[in-house]
Amino acid sequence: MVNLKRFIEQGGLFVTIGSNAAIPIEYGIIQGVSIVQTRELQARGGVYRAVFADKRSPIAYGYGDHLAVYFNQAPVFQVSLTGGLGGGGGAFGAQQQQPAGRPSGRGSLTDPDIPQGRPYAPPPPPRTGEESGIPEEVSEFVRAFLPPPEARPRVVLRFADEPNLLIAGMLAGGRELANRPAVIDVPVGKGHVLLFANNPMWRQQTQGSFFLLFNAMLHYDHLHVGRQPTRAEAASDEEDGQ
User: What is the rounded end-to-end Cα distance, in angstroms, of the chain?
Assistant: First the structure.
């Protein structure tokens, strides 16, 4: 593990597919990503819809907004930058990915949440792959506990919401998979760990997702492209422009 971590930190790319994602997570090579143990999910060997959360990543080059991916039950990822700072419910990022209920308390989880007697306000746009998911009013409070932006996990591909998730195969308990990360790029030193929940190369049948892996290999030393600049980089650019 020491040699593997050194390889990554010196600029290498380490790719995990499926259950072997536990290697960099459990051995502490990466932080901010965990594997969730599901209770109701039944998604054995099916095709599921995923949406690109960060199209600026080189891994997403050449793709549209959606992609059909092959997934077989596990792993189910969770990206959490704050550990247990979210209180009894866990981290802020996890709470926003898997809401426990509806804000208005009306209807079922799949009904539009439109309170009566007031103008309809559309929900905010979905978060990009780099955003922390922490409420703005507490972001300053937890800033000291967060990794710097350039070191945070970057969600490139995310499973679709529950009504649009299944394309072909078996699915029960889909809410445990809906909106979860499917492809995560985690910087480690000068290198990267790339985690696939789906299998991008399964029995020559998932040709549409081959280039997720090819793009990562072709751009292994430029996977940082498209990330939002850090404060120091932004300040340096401003000074150069003056």
Answer: 46
CB of 156 within 8 A of CB of 57?
yes
pTM for this entry: 0.76
Sorted by where each starts, the structural domains of the chain and their CATH numbers stand as 2-96+126-241 (3.40.50)
199 CB contacts (<8 Å, ≥6 apart)? 17, 18, 70, 71, 72, 206
Residue 85 class from Cβ within 10 Å (0-12 exposed, 13-18 middle, 19+ buried)?
middle
pLDDT in tens, 83-111: 544 433 334 444 444 444 556 666 666 66
- Higher-confidence position of 139 and 126: 139
Residue that the structure tokens 């009566």 belong to: 116
**CA gap 11, 221 in Å, rounded:** 7
